[in-house]
Amino acid sequence: MNNVLAGLIYKSCAVYLDDIVVASPTFEQHLLDLKEVLGRLQSAGLSLKLSKCQFCLSELTFLGYRVMPAGIHPDPDKVRAVTEFKVPTTTKQVRQFLGLTGYYRRFVQDYARHAEPLFALTKKDVQFHWDDKCQAAVDFLKHSITSAPVLRFPDFSRPFFIHTDACDAGLGAALMQKDEDGKDVAVAFASRAMHKSEKPYSTPEKECLAVIWALEHFRPYVEGLHVTIYTDHSSLKWLMSRPNPSGRLARWSLRLQDFDFSIIHKPGERNKVPDALSRNPLPDVDAPIDLLPPYAVIGSMDLRALPSVIVSDRPHVRQLQLEDPVTGSLLNQLESDQRSGEDNQDLEKYVVHDGLLYFLDPKTKCGLHPLKQLKLFAPTALRGYLLKYYHDHPTAGHLGIAKTLARLRLRFFWPHMNSDVKKYVVSCCSCQATKPTQRKTAGLMVPIQPQRPWEYAGVDYVGPLPRTQRGNAYILVFVDYFSKWIEVSAVREATAQVAANKFITDIFARHGAPSYLISDRGTPFISELFEHVLSTLGTEHRLTTAYHPQTNATERVNRTLKTAIRAYVGDKHTSWDKYLPQICFALRTAPHESTGLSPSMMLYGRELDTPLDLVTQPSWEGLSDPETSYSDDLRASLRDAHEHARLVLEESHKRQKHYYDLRRRTVSHEVGDLVRVKSHPKSDASSNFSAKLAPLYTGPYRISKKMSDVNYCLTSVDTGEKVGVFHVANLQPFYTWASALSGKHAKLKTAAALDLSVPDCSLPPALSTPGRIDCDTVDTTSTVFSNAPAETDFDCTDTVPLFVDQNSFQETADNALETEVNGSPPADNGCAVRGSYNLRPRRVPRVTTDWSVNRWTNPFYTDRFDLK
């Protein structure tokens, strides 16, 4: 039906399965709409039953609702079914009653609070017991639905108001409007329970979550419109005012940017509707998608507020150019034709066309379009908007540095555009989360060098496999890193108790306690029971990092085992455990490629006899030495085997490391650095989630400790709680706007508007940075310049002299560095005075910067250096 009426749905009709409703503002339009709908049905060969059709009604019943000009109301027939519902005597009947009344929960204020005794009866392992509270809940719900208010239709010409509240129990919201008399009328109510992971949030975070959830829940009503939000927590505005949100707060800020809203504090005693809803929430229920107006998110805003400048028309752009010191000065000179001789050469690069300042680009081939050579000279206040538009906007596609820069160069010009674009793209949160890296995997090999048998051992489970006739579904594997000896057992379940028992019987009782046992972070191996057994026996437990199984040598044995089993079971997949002893024997007696000796020779100093050896091998009777020499021979054999193995293993590790490192690169992070972690999501068809479309990285996280050259401990940026230990191969630097080009090889270009008559001046206040997280920037009023030079605390590869006057200055392309101040301000505050300064930047802790000419008003330049 949706295909037949495509283009008409939500325009002149609504469809649910085989029910069609045609709605029109006037009778004349209604006739035209009916004709169009009926024509579509006739063309599709569909017929209607006349007895089920109703025409030209002012009100009707549809999907359990009575639709009237004033609004909607529960269907009287359904209301009658509620009032005649008998007192439930079983849990199933309670669920039926809640399902019937819950369909009309949007009409019942405090539905969840009054229905709480009934919800309690539906919980797992709760014995059914009907009491006075349950009966009171049924009576109240029946009465409330029979006297339910009429929910008004949304009037999109009037402003919407959303009242929100949150508590430990849940979230509540009410969508309201004012009617013709100025009275508040309800459009819809909503509530939901607080998820387990959300309950530890602080009160401001819960209030913020309520706002986000309410806006997204009522998105079909409020998207594209300004909405006022009333909340009972005055500190909710902290999120929008935070200078550097990150992690969860940054993601929340991103979600909020889809909406245009303002927040008003309203105490809880005056915010009763959502307060009651939040304290008595309903479980989440998905609405039928066919009942919702179609909409699509074609893009999302950045992590902060919109750019401070929105281009509206050409006069607006001209006004921005006039307000900018650089472009304004050039405009005035060109339009008044007041130029000195030495300025003519520079001014020839610019032209005024239609009242706007353009840069005349000699590199552009104009062809048939001579105006292509003209590039708009973007004033400082406009550059943030342009960067955002040509990178973040859906029509920009979040393309890379080269493409973004090329598109901007086709139309605009400003000094240091390359650097600005690179910083903006590199620090883009969306790009960092979704784009794969094209570089080699990080982290060189760090081989484990055991010196004796069972010094290092590994353990892992294989499975689940098809359950055999003996009831086994898993394989528990232990491997000695030195001798390569394996202990393999078929087990029924992969639990900590099984692993602990097998460690005692198969490893400790036969070979003694290993010094170190390496395992992954599976639940059986990180349990208290398994850890207690290892600590009691004196074995140190070492865990591999998440999603880096190369540390555990057992993984390689697992692959060999599965390959061997596959070769023998054929199509009898429930008999695999019968072959484990034979396969285990084969691996123990075969020379290992890394040592050149068999595990049995490495462990026992002799080869294990096979059944065929008893027939084919010569007898040792009469050839052997006296018994007293056997122990000496065995000791010598073991000593030679171990010494040979150490040398061969060392060479093998060097060879493996050489070829492994060819595909890797050296990366070193420092404590305090921000990183993002590679994600490994799994698709979930039930929730329409595809791993192919999921972000590739999560974060940012902060490095709290360097565990080794390749392993790092990470903590949450928001809470400081430990996230886990990760291998460097799963980490990538997280670039903030401040750190995008900072570091050992960053090119620093300093610029500032200076007054030569004042030796010292202070930094302007920091401005927010739209679309970027800057966790390292802090407010400071450090001195910019003083007469005392300072040493450079980090490598600076490019420092340029400046042309300075009291009002504005330009940077030169000459990389020569002057050592003293020359020049003085003219008496008439002219623009021709040239001064050069020896600028020695000093990095201030937790302060980063990139200054440009007179960019104090640019919201994209918040980073600062303390230059002394």
TrEMBL record:
Occurrences of domain Reverse transcriptase (ranges): 1-67
GO biological processes: DNA integration; DNA recombination; proteolysis
Pfam family, one: SH3_Tf2-1
Membrane-crossing segments per the record: none
Domain Integrase catalytic, residue spans: 449-607
Keyword Ribonucleoprotein (UniProt): no
CDD domains on file: RNase_HI_RT_Ty3, RT_LTR
Keyword Metal-binding: yes
Keywords (A to Z) from UniProt: Aspartyl protease, DNA integration, DNA recombination, DNA-binding, DNA-directed DNA polymerase, Endonuclease, Hydrolase, Magnesium, Metal-binding, Nuclease, Nucleotidyltransferase, Protease, RNA-directed DNA polymerase, Transferase
Coiled coil regions, renumbered to chain: none
InterPro entries: DNA/RNA_pol_sf, Integrase_cat-core, Integrase_H2C2, Retrovirus_Pol_polyprotein, Rev_trsase/Diguanyl_cyclase, RNaseH-like_sf, RNaseH_sf, RT_dom
Superkingdom as given in the UniProt entry: Eukaryota
The EC number(s) this enzyme carries: 3.1.26.4
Molecular-function GO term, any one: aspartic-type endopeptidase activity
Family the entry assigns: Belongs to the beta type-B retroviral polymerase family. HERV class-II K(HML-2) pol subfamily.
Protein's recorded name: Gypsy retrotransposon integrase-like protein 1
